[in-house]
From TrEMBL:
It is found in: Secreted. Binds 2 calcium ions per subunit. It comes from Channa argus. The keyword Calcium applies. It comes from the Eukaryota. One of its GO terms (molecular function) is metal ion binding. Keywords: Calcium, Metal-binding. One of its GO terms (cellular component) is extracellular region. Homopentamer. Pentaxin (or pentraxin) have a discoid arrangement of 5 non-covalently bound subunits. Its cofactor is Ca(2+). The keyword Nucleotide-binding does not apply. This is Pentraxin family member. InterPro entries: ConA-like_dom_sf, Pentraxin_domain, PTX_dom. The lineage of its organism: Eukaryota, Metazoa, Chordata, Craniata, Vertebrata. Residues 27-227 form the Pentraxin (PTX) domain.
């Protein structure tokens, strides 16, 4: 059989293509904050304003920070207020704050092994909970009838005490963070569980990690990795 160069080439291209797009292999952007700082952060540009009466916020996080130190995991601030901050508290609890006092969850410590986290909140009932690797926390009633206000900035790595400023090195995030997605509604428990291992499916309709623009300031390593 005579195999033309063109056929060889297309066979070659076919093999390359099939070997890099294995079923189930998904490549995503990964952020590493290598050290404590009061000036390194990443701004995420959402797909739409954070005018929210409910949300689901998910991410994959690994951090080796231990001991009594607050660690900011996600910050959304307008010119007037901290509208949504997600924390690892100094005692290891995980929490979020909507313009005021927060809701805290006693859960296993974050570690250097990646943990899939989702936080949910619904204004109509105030129902709040988190999911760690798909396992649901208890549900707490928090900020019923509250609304998160639009026109702020979403940042990873720092807690701004003013609009994009007044960062505290002792609250900075150190570690890796990826797959940050946000929806303006509460996903079902099963959808959240599926996300942990199935890895595919639509991204958030408020923040879609696959497409959201990442604006890096300071020292943050951005790379592609397999999810
Ligand atoms: C950060 O924490 C260290 C150790 O506790 C302390 O010495 C330092 O003053 C703190 N820095 C700021 C800016 O609070
Ligand atoms: C992100 O993009 C990858 C590759 O295009 C796709 O397989 C995956 O389902 C997407 N994930 C989300 C969360 O959109
Ligand atoms: Ca602060």
């Amino acid at each position: 059989m005579v195999c033309s160069d063109k056929m060889r080439l297309s066979l070659f291209v076919f093999l390359i293509t099939t070997s890099t797009v294995l079923p189930g292999a998904v490549t995503i952007r990964n952020l590493v904050f290598p050290a404590e700082s009061d000036n390194s952060f990443v701004e995420l540009v959402p797909q739409k304003p954070l005018n929210l009466a409910a949300f689901t916020l998910c991410m994959r996080v690994a951090t080796e920070l231990q001991g009594s130190r607050e660690v900011i995991l996600f910050a959304y601030r307008t010119r007037h207020n901290d509208e949504l901050n997600v924390w690892r508290e100094s005692d290891g609890r995980l929490s979020f704050y909507l313009a005021g006092g927060g809701v805290l969850f006693q859960v296993p410590q974050l570690s250097g092994l990646e943990t899939h986290l989702c936080f949910i909140w619904d204004s109509s009932s105030g129902a709040s909970a988190l999911f760690m690797d798909g396992r649901r926390s208890l549900t707490k009633t928090y900020k019923k009838a509250h609304t998160i206000q639009p026109n702020g900035n979403v940042i990873l790595g720092q807690d701004p005490d003013s609009y994009l400023g007044e960062f505290d090195i002792n609250q900075s995030f150190v570690g890796s963070i990826t797959d940050v997605n946000m929806w303006d509604y509460v996903l079902s428990d099963s959808a959240i569980r599926d996300m942990v291992y199935k890895k595919t499916g639509p991204g958030g309709n408020v923040i879609d990690w696959n497409t959201t623009n990442l604006q890096v300031t300071g020292v943050v390593e951005v790379s592609d990795r397999e999810l």
